[in-house]
Amino acid sequence: MRDFAKDHSALALNTATLGHNLDGHGAGWSVERVVEACAERGFGGIVFWRREIGNRAVEIGERVRAAGLSVVGLCRAPYLAGPLALPGRAAIMDDFRAAIDMAAGLGAPVLTIVCGGVEPGTKGIGESLKLVADRVAEAAAYAAASNVRLALEPLHPVYGGDRSCLVTMRDAVDLCLAIDAPNVGVAVDVYHVWWDRTLADELLRAGPERIFGYHLCDWLAQTHDVLLDRGMMGDGVADLKAIRAAVEAAGYNGPCEVEVFSAQNWWRRDPADVLDACVERFRSVC
Amino acid sequence: MRDFAKDHSALALNTATLGHNLDGHGAGWSVERVVEACAERGFGGIVFWRREIGNRAVEIGERVRAAGLSVVGLCRAPYLAGPLALPGRAAIMDDFRAAIDMAAGLGAPVLTIVCGGVEPGTKGIGESLKLVADRVAEAAAYAAASNVRLALEPLHPVYGGDRSCLVTMRDAVDLCLAIDAPNVGVAVDVYHVWWDRTLADELLRAGPERIFGYHLCDWLAQTHDVLLDRGMMGDGVADLKAIRAAVEAAGYNGPCEVEVFSAQNWWRRDPADVLDACVERFRSVC
């Protein structure tokens, strides 16, 4: 297992941690200022959200690399099914390709997929997962031409109805095996999987070629809002060391991306302090 | 699979569906009025919460049976671990025995156990599950003397931090096998397990001797409050027929208990209408 106590070059910032992926939150730092602040602190990489990029993907990608950082990924593909998805397959696939194009422009090796919830008119998650498999399989061919990998991120089962019919690593690995494309894998986010005692075995089943990302935050024992009340690493009940041990035992040794949605706490702080906390917690408790 | 379309004698009311298990909610019907209303509608049984019973356990149990109903169960044992548990093992076990005594007085064959969350000072759910196993094993011997069975209810993983370190049927079955007492089994609640594609296999692993209850409600696609915004059967995305098929395939053919926590919807309605809806939905969509 890697020792981060004296080397945090594997640390990446997901910009959601600074809040400005949602209107009305965060301190409003520009992309350039975020990049500079991460570089100053020795972060290894950065993950953006599409709304921050607009039509500046190539420019921002170059800016990140000029600062000595990597673009680690892009959030995210559109919902592929469920009540929050765009109306109709064509609109969904158009937006999916636009997200892939943006990732390619940025030089982001990974585009994260949040699958979307239970397709209206169906019950349970089975039919929705089939829709997702079909749509990801089609997009995977398009993404491969741009060297973009697609990371299926199982979300916590609390989002099963509306945001993600994919709620366990087991189902994510099954989906990868069914799609069977070399650029389709999984992302592991401690917020979503901390409670799952089958995680280590499922990651071994995925294998190193299918683990495309590792996301850090913490699950607060008493969570007030399942969307915007995530904890900073160390403040919650997730066994972060054990989860990383499982991820690394399965062969992953890539970036570790801090993604803390926290409207009432971390998003209200000075971003400089938040970034300092990310570094300190990464070295001490992750 | 049983046909409920013309026979709802397996239907039981969990009184939480009428809201009066929480202060300030519900229409305030007396226990006697609830029993009478259930009997009029052909319910087969009823499940109470401890706060409704006080020191009238024997009297209420007799009242229920005189009305032609069964007392199906009692909610619930105290949290056995985690931040919401009583302070100290002795206080927890005293209250656990008091709950068992009340179930025995009522003539309730089953006492439901909600395990409690992650024990302070620990990370992940592993250590907390060990505490739970130890405490349930001790209580099981006491409960056996009163012919009370203990039903471990895995809650949805959203409650993992504070209310239940037991969040999957897999872990619940493992816990039963570890404790290995004939009066320790599981309760299956669709709200908590609807997203789990391993459910059918885990129930087969439990076997008919270890399934002590089946709880009905629905998971609303867009849930506003994970505690008090449950749906009535048919209004959500749970595949209720498929889940019951799995439960019955594993050998369970006992009562089906409606338990709808719904502060902003069902708890605001006339209890008579709520009970009518329970019957109608039970016959049509469960």
Automatic annotation (TrEMBL), chains A, B:
Q: Which GO terms describe its molecular function?
A: isomerase activity
Q: Which UniProt keywords apply?
A: Isomerase
Presence of the UniProt keyword Isomerase in the record: yes
On the tree of life, the source organism's domain of life is: Bacteria
Q: Name one Pfam family in it.
A: AP_endonuc_2
The answer on whether this UniProt entry bears the keyword Transferase reads no
Q: Which InterPro entries match?
A: IolE/XylAMocC-like, Xyl_isomerase-like_sf, Xyl_isomerase-like_TIM-brl
Gene3D superfamilies per UniProt = Divalent-metal-dependent TIM barrel enzymes
Xylose isomerase-like TIM barrel domain mapped to chain residues = 35-270
Q: Write the protein's name.
A: Sugar phosphate isomerase/epimerase
Q: Which organism is it from?
A: Mesorhizobium atlanticum
Lineage of the native species?
Bacteria, Pseudomonadati, Pseudomonadota, Alphaproteobacteria, Hyphomicrobiales
